[in-house]
Amino acid sequence: MPFQNSISDKNHFNLVDFAGIGFGPTNISVAIAMEELRPELSASFFEAQPSFGWHKGLLLGGATMQVSFLKDLVSFRNPRSRFSFTSFLHEKGRLADFANLKTFFPSRIEFHQYLEWCAQAFASQVNYGERVEEISLIEPQGSSAPGFRLQVAGADGQRRIFARNVIFAGGLCPQVPETLRGKSGVFHTSELLPNMQRLRPGSRVAVVGAGQSATEAANYIYDNVPGSIVHAIVPRFGHSPADDSPFVNQVFDPEHVESFFNAPASIREKILSVHASTNYAAVDLADIEALYQRWYMDRLTGEGRLHLHRMSRLIDATHIGSTVVATVNHELTQTTSQLELDAVICATGYRPRDVRDLMDERTREALRTNNDGSLDVDRLYRVGFDLPHAPALFVPDMCEKTHGLSATLISNMAVRAGEIVQSLPHHHNTKLPLSEVA
Ligand SMILES: Cc1cc2nc3c(=O)[nH]c(=O)nc-3n(C[C@H](O)[C@H](O)[C@H](O)COP(=O)(O)OP(=O)(O)OC[C@H]3O[C@@H](n4cnc5c(N)ncnc54)[C@H](O)[C@@H]3O)c2cc1C
C-alpha cells in the first residue's frame, strides 16, 4: 500500500512528515523503505527534472553498471521486496533471458528502466519539474515541534512546503575546469547524448580525462561519429582499471560503514586515498581494452582517427571562427601543442551537491561543523544543529568522508534507506509553530 501523501492540493496548507529533495536512486530507495517500514508517515519528493531521469546524458548503448544487480535499491535490506531488480525482470518477462546473459552487471539502459519502474510506483508523491530553492529551519515554540520550510519553484511559480524532516539527495554536480567553463564548443560528458547531433561525420573531438566516462565517451564517439578524429587527453600515463577485486570491494559492504564511521579521521582518509581506485579515475578493464583495440587497429590501418595524449592537460580552448583551438600541455615532453577541434568533451568528474547552498543564513549559522568546515553528521547521515531540539536533515550523498566510499554510489542504498527511515521520529501528530505555517 503506498504511503499517504498530504500534498494533494498544491494551494492547500502543505505539511508533510518527510520531504525529499531530488528523486534519484537515493530518494527512490527511501520512498520504498517508507512504504515497507513506515507507511504511516506522509512524504513528498521534489525533483527538478521534468520527469524521472538517471544520468541520461550518458545513457550510452553498451555502457554497463559498475555495481551488481544484487545491490539494487532493496535486496540487501529486504530480499523479498517487490521492488527488487529480479522482480522487475519478472514483471517485464525478461527473467530467463537476463539469466542467460550470465552477468551481474546489467546495461545502464536496463538499470535506468528498473529505476524508472520503481519511481513510477511513487508518482503521486513526486513533484517533477519542481526545484527546492531554499531550506529554512523552523525552531520549536512551546509544545510545537521543529521543522523546515522549503521554498519550491516550478512552472506554476513559487510555493512553500513545511516538513518535519528533510532528506537532501541532490546527487552529483558535473565539474568543468575553470579555464574551460562556459567556452563555446566545450561541454561535460553529462551532456554527451544531447550534443551528439552537433558532431558531424569527420568531427575532430578532444575527450579530456582518464576515468570511466572519458573511456566510454572516446569509444562511443569513435564508433558512432563516422570518420571522427578522437584525441584522448589523459593526465596520467594510461587509463587505469577500477579495482573491483573481492577483498577491496568489501569496502562497499553495509557492515563496514559502522567501522569506517567509528575510525579516527586519519584512518578514514587513508582508506579513501588507498582505495580511491575503486571509484575515481578508474575504468572497467573491458572498456580500456576496447579502447586499446581501436587504437591498435587505427595504427594498423593508418587511419589516424584515435590519438592518445599521455600525461597531458588541456589548459585552454578558444573558439576561432567555427573551430575550437585547444592548447595542450604535455608533461612528459615538457611541450605545449595546439589542436584544431570541433568540440571538447570534459570527462572531468563530479562533486556532491552541497545542502548549504540551499540554506538561508539563520539555518547555516545553526549548523554544527567540524574544524575543517565540513558538516558534523552522525551515523544516520543526519546533520547536527546547535539547537536543543532540531528537526532531522539527512544528507547521505555528502557523507563520503564519514561513511566511506559507498556514500555517492548505489551499493549501500538499500540498507542506508532503511536506517534513515527507521530513525524517523514518531512525532507525526505534533504541530509546527503556527506563526510559521499560517
Ligand atoms: C554516468 C554515471 C554512471 C554511474 N554509474 C554508477 C554505477 O554503475 N554504480 C554506482 O553505484 N554508482 C554509479 N554512479 C554514481 C551515482 O552517483 C549514483 O549512481 C546515483 O546517481 C546517486 O543517486 P542520488 O539519488 O543520490 O543522486 P542523483 O542520481 O544524482 O539524483 C539527484 C537528483 O536530485 C535532483 N536535484 C538536485 N538538486 C535539486 C533541488 N534543489 N531540487 C529538486 N531536485 C534536485 C537532480 O535533478 C537529480 O535528479 C554513476 C554516476 C554517473 C554520473
Structural features, described:
The chain is of the alpha/beta class and 438 residues long. The chain has two domains: 15-171 and 353-437, FAD/NAD(P)-binding domain, CATH 3.50.50; 174-241 and 280-349, FAD/NAD(P)-binding domain. Helices cover 27% and strands 22% of the residues. The chain contains 14 helices and 17 strands. The protein has helices at 25-37, 85-92, 95-99, 108-120, 192-195, 212-224, 246-249, 255-262, 265-274, 285-301, 361-366, 400-403, 413-423, 434-437, and strands spanning 15-21, 43-47, 126-128, 131-138, 147-154, 157-168, 172-174, 186-188, 204-208, 229-233, 306-309, 312-320, 323-330, 335-341, 343-346, 350-352, 392-394. The strands form four sheets. Strands 1, 2, 3, 4, 5, 6 and 17 form a seven-stranded mixed beta sheet that branches. A hairpin with an 8-residue loop joins strand 4 and strand 5. Helix 1 packs across helix 13. Residues 1-12 have low confidence and may be disordered. The structure holds flavin-adenine dinucleotide. Residues 21-22, 24-27, 46-49, 54-55, 58, 65-67, 131-132, 169-172, 213, 350, 353, 358, 397, 408-411 line the site of flavin-adenine dinucleotide (FAD). InterPro entries: FAD/NAD-bd_sf (IPR036188), Lys/Orn_oxygenase (IPR025700). Keywords: FAD, Flavoprotein, NADP, Oxidoreductase. This is Lysine N(6)-hydroxylase/L-ornithine N(5)-oxygenase family protein. Its cofactor is FAD. Pathway: Siderophore biosynthesis.
